[in-house]
Structures are given as C-alpha cells and as structure tokens.
Amino acid sequence: MSDVIQLLPDSVANQIAAGEVIQRPASVIKELVENAVDAGARHIDVSVVDAGRTSIQVIDDGKGMSETDARLAFERHATSKIRHAEDLFNLRTMGFRGEALPSIVAVSQVELKTRTADDTLGTDICFSGSKVLSQEPCACQQGANFKVENLFFNVPARRKFLKSNATELNHVITAFERIALVYPDIAFSLHSNGSELYNLRAGTLRQRIVEVFGKRINADLLPLSVETSVCGLSGFVGKPESAKKKGVRQFFFVNGRYMRHPYFHKAVQSVYERMVPQGEQVPYFIYFDINPHDIDVNIHPTKTEIKFENEQTVYQILLAAVRDAVGTFSGASAIEFDVEGKPDIPMFQPEGQPSDFAMPKVDFDPQYNPFAASKPRATPKADLGLGVTGAHDVGGGFDSADFFSGGVGSSALFAGQDAPAQDAPDSLFSGPVQEGSAPELEDKAPAHYQYKGKYIMTAVKSGLMVVDQHRAHVRVLYEDYLRRLSNHKIASQKVLFPQQVELSSKEMVTLTTVKDAFSEFGFELSPLGASSYGINAIPEGLEGIDVASLLHDLLSDTDAESPLAKIHEGMAASLAQAAAIPYGQVLSNDEMEDLTNRLFQCSNVNYTPDGRATLCIIKQKDIETMLG
Fold it and tell me: Nearest to residue 163, comparing CAs of 36, 51, 21?
C-alpha cells in the first residue's frame, strides 16, 4: 500500500490558519494595528473602503523593516517577539505567534512599503494569495504602509458570508476602539470611504475615553487606582446614575490587551447590585497590570481569553477597588481595618442637652376606629393614553368600608363562591388564555383592583385574573404602533426646543442605514455636525420621555442587517417599552377596564413582544383549597 500522508503546501496551511486568525476585515485591522504598536509607532492611520472588503490601509511611523525582514515577515511563524518557549510566559507585546501576516496574504492581495531610520531607501513588496509578485526599492517614509485589497478573493465562500458594509464597519470600529483605548499616548485616525470617523490625539486616558465615546461620559467616570503585590488596577468605573440597559461601555484590559472575563464582570456588577435598577449595568474601563508569568494569553487565536493563576485573589482586589471608588464618590468612607492602638473617641454630649439618639416617643389615639369612615377618594387624574379621562380612582388600594358595607367590589369578591368544584390542577395558575377570547367576567361592569401599583386584579368566572399593567400596556402599544405603521398614520409631535444628541461612530453608521425607518415612526432628525443630530420631532405619545436616551437605545437594538419588517418590529417594541405606563402609577377603575379591554383585542394577549407573561388566572378551586 502506498503512503497517503503528506505535508500540506505552505499556501494551503496559511489558508487554514487564516480561517481562525482572519475572520473578517476587522481582524486584519486588529493584527496590523497591533504590529504597528509593537513597532513603537506614535501615529497610526487606518483607512477602509467598503468596510474593508475592498481595501484596508494601515500607515504607521514605527521602526520599519529592512529588505530581508520585509520578505521574511510573511513566512509562517516568523516573529521578532519571542526566541524560546519560555518567552511565552514573559510577553509584553501584542503579537507573538507569527501567524497574522502569512494568514492575511493567504486570503488577499497585499502591498507593503517600509523603511527603517538607518536606510535611505525602503522596500516595496507585493503579494497575491501567498505568492510574491515583486520586491523592489522605493522611496517612502520611515515606518510601514500596509495596503490589503480584495479580502477573501480566493476564498469565495468566506467572502460570501461577510455581512453588510454597515455591520462590518461596526466590527472595524469595535476593533479600532479596543486598541485606541489602551494607548492614549499614541495618535490614531480612522477613515471610511474618505470620511473621517476618528481623529484621536495623544493625551491622557480620560481624554481618550471622552474623544472616543463623547463628552457626556466624562461626568460619569469615577477614577480607580490600586497597587498590590499581586496586580495593579487603574482606570474608571461609572457612577450609579450612569447605568443603562443597553449600549453600555464595558472594557477589561490586561497588560495592554483587551479581554473578556465574565467572572471579573460579576465582581464589578455586584458592587452596584442595590444601587441601580435590575437589568441595568454601569460602564467601566479597567486596566490590569500583572506579572506575565501569572497569566496565559496563548489560549485562543483572537487572544481575548486569558487565564489567571490567582484568579480568586484578583477578583477580591477588583471587588474592593471598585467598592472603594464608588464609596468615595457617594461620601461613604472606606472601611478601616487597621484600628489597633487607635483610641476610641466618645461622642460629646453636654450635660442637660437631650441626646440625638434618645428613644423616640410614639403617640397614638386610643379612640381611633379605622372602620368608622371610608377613606377619601383620590383626585381626578390625567389621561394616560388609555382612552379614559376624568375617571375617579378606585384602584389605589383596598377600601375596608366598601368591603364591610357590601359596596363596590363586594359582588366581585364573593361572586362564584357556589360554583361547582373542579379537579385540583397541578399548578396554582392556569395556562395561557386562548387567543382572540377574553375570560368571562363576573359582572357586566366589573370592579378592578390595583395591587401595589403593579397588578390589575379582576374577578372572572373561573377565578381571579391578575394582569401586569406595564406589560399589558407594552403589548397594546406594540400592536398599535405596527397597525398605525401599516396604515402610514404614525404622526409626529414637534418639540418646542430641538434637543441635540451626540452619537458614537457605531450609532452614526446604524442611523445612516436605517434613517428611513426612524422617519416612518415619526422621528425628525437633522444633522448638526460630524457626530451630532438635532431631534426636531418625536412620535406622538412620547412626551415627558428622555428622547436622547431612547434614541441611543433604539440604535443599540437595531440590527441594520435585519429585514425592514424586523427593524419595524424591534423599534415598535422599544417605543412601546418606553411609552408604557410605569409600575407604581395609580389607575382609576375606568382606566384599568379600558386597558384590559384593549389587551384582549390584541392578537397575542398572553405575552409581551419579548416573551414575558402579561397575565395569569388563579382558579376558584385553588383559592378554596388554600383557604381550607
């Protein structure tokens, strides 16, 4: 039998490696910019055409390469970063494997012009699919000038599965930001199709964060700085009021390298657990400086996964550092553990002066009878957008007078007590309501009760129906937006003073792609500068809402890659979530009835657009069982 095992040609091996290292145009930019940083560049310029699928150019003023190095750099595992295996545990550079350049030239056409400070002439070398086309002397500036064209030209399947230009450009911006945030002392620029997206000057870390993400974030940053024998921590964390549900800027960097680490993320969020609403997160920019021997970055080709030898210790240091930063901002003093030998200073209280900590006195009226008179009704409330105005409030709480006098609500409370017994269900709550039908009510004009400003409780033939008022209104508004959009009847409401909103580069790319969809929903936006827009009109029903934050959330949720119908559904869900009545808002009986009726006119009465339950029914038999 003849031998069947053979060595792969270098070109094939490079294409296989490129499948892991070079996934999209953003991967090329990451590798080339990191090489420029390792070369000691002080200015790095990046330009892309068609989000990088047509052309990528990276120019730096680093050390440059000699004629021999320029040719050898494109060979597999050729690197200047390490010499021995032990060097893997003492890495201070971004790259070290020697896989990036051969992977890039394996799937594209590359031209490199480079010159060192000692050379008069540089070298110009051209590749196409791992093949050297030419190499000759040329006049060029010191540093390196990489031009990568026609990415994946020889791998049609990979090129076919690239996303739209807007999506790929967002990935390019993400890769660019991650490197620019690590090196504030280096000047960076990014251009797309000739338009400038970033022009970052060298400066401090705070200045770099503000330049990248806008001036609004500057007031939300709390400084963080800790030095220990295990590691050093520096950077910024956000104030509690800067918490958001979407589009939060969160970055970890280790020895100048971006990383993802869910365990450390949990440490940061645990500090804010009782300071921010549930589901919201704060921004942070945290930089670890740790001995390279205590970490391993050689895990994945993207190098975003890093193993720590003392992970639990670093977790505790991070937790204490963030807690101290937030505590200093809020006025709470840091916990002092070293109190040995320090005197106890008693509180000064002059004789004859009452103490501030004296036992309080409790006054009560022994003649008070809570059942002697009914509670006063609430004043009429404003229109909530439910189609009801001028109704008095009967749902703010339980009225004992009505209960004992047999007034409003008594028929609903005691209705159905003689109903025939049913088999005990497996669960306390019944299943979803059948689509297109509402539960049969006890009375023609039922009384609704509001529980803790969150739930609407109504007696039905089968038991007690509990409706989540916020989620029910979200479902109602969601379907109303889509229905009005199909009829082209979403009206705009002009604002008295146009509000200026500053968008990030990613948000600008998304808005450019889906601007027509925003107009269809009633937004009227006008450009005010390179990255600012004026909000001149908003959809009806959003009065009193922070429109700038809403616009940021909409742009964070919108996927420019999705079909137009999906974009409409996503925007309708976000607008409904923002405009729905909040928890804690007291509703009148007529308003609760109107909301319930409109809910049961929806195509899906059981769930919100994001799949959360809107109602449940507690069966009569279960109530009787619980009461014995």
Answer: 51
